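note to self: dont lose this again. the chain is below, predicted strucutre after it. 234 aa total, dont forget to put it in the shared folder this time
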Amino acid sequence: MVTKMNIALVLMTILAALPRNIVAVDHIVGDTTGWTIPSGGPTTYANWASGRIFRVGDTLVFNFASGAHDVAKVTKSAYDSCSSTNPISLITVGPANITLNSTGSEYFICTFGQHCNAGQKLAINVATSSTTSPTPAPSPAPTPVPNPTRAPTPTPSPSPSDGPSGPSPSPSGGAGDSPVSAPPLGPVTPEPTTPSPTSPGDGLVPPPAPSSASRSVFVHALIMFMSIAISIMC
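---
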């Protein structure tokens, strides 16, 4: 079931992915002054344009009273000389809306009397519209789950066995003594020795118990995966 919170998150993600400046902007020429003979002198409209960015698709709005002013789109040479001969376009009814359809420099003047020479003229530079999409963030790599490993079982070392031992004959008699006959000795039967049971301390090390650390990591990874799946389904 999709909740309101999930819908809000989806909308925020879509808005963040939208390219910047895809909405056209209406520029009110001169702001509250409008399109008229500027009281601030010839640099009034140049100062106004210097603080703005004009893009393809934007609109210039010239607010003026019909019959008192007009707006003509002209070439650079006509702009510099304030010539109203053969304008590219001329609008005599205010307010006038002019859409910027191409990049580059655009020039506008008022053809009434000496209005252009008094500073009623505008030059702007039009840039391309920004439609570059942002780069998506890399998705996080999955966390690897280690496999449990067993320690190698050491090979037990053989314990040495005790061999039969017999009494060592000791020589009797000294130099110059007459030999004394000794009774013959019969064969000595060694007593059987019972080998002692091998204990873990004689070199045989029992294999260690399997480690539980790997099993704990696997359980945590499984719980995390189930939590993400449940949050997506909800």
